[in-house]
Amino acid sequence: MEGPKTQKDGAMTENAPEQQIYELLKKERCTLTTAESATGGMIASTLVNVPGISEFFQEGYVTYSDAAKVKMIHVNPDTIAAYGVVSSETAADMARGAAKTAGTDAALSVTGVAGPDGGTKECPVGLVFLGCHLRGRTVTERHLFSGDRMQVRTQAARAALLLLEQMLLTGGAYADHCREES
Predict the structure, then answer these.
(1) pLDDT at 177
(2) Class of CATH domain 17-176
(3) Where are any strands of DSSP class E within 20-125?
(4) Tens digit of pLDDT for each residue in 144-164?
């Protein structure tokens, strides 16, 4: 996410992803929460750039540790043990758990390795899984981003917003065409 697109007077342009999401949430009368690990609240911070978003964006969770994921949004510890914290399964559990905990129609989740340390051959720096839950349907995406820590986090936050936008545009049918990207 390059940050909100602004005009010289500081006003947000209509094509900023968060503005589009606001319009879709409003149209669908849909509430939203976030569950962020690698992005550390960046998605929530971007969403609150939009005046009036509080009508739909209920709350956000920064669940940086495994324990926080389990305690705050009820990720199944067996999921983390079986698949790892950086996995499609954990991203899906995070999105479903956040929506259920917050009582919202939709939830976005992010888990990954932002770097510069912490990567392995199986789970390299830049590997990020996104989850989006919308009214009973959950989709995940796998991405392998490049760049420094901030670039990975920024790309992950932007991709998450685009995933939410696709789910809202299709009424959740996007989940039927789940794909992994890298």
Answers:
(1) 63
(2) alpha beta
(3) 32-36, 57-62, 106-112
(4) 999 999 999 999 999 999 999
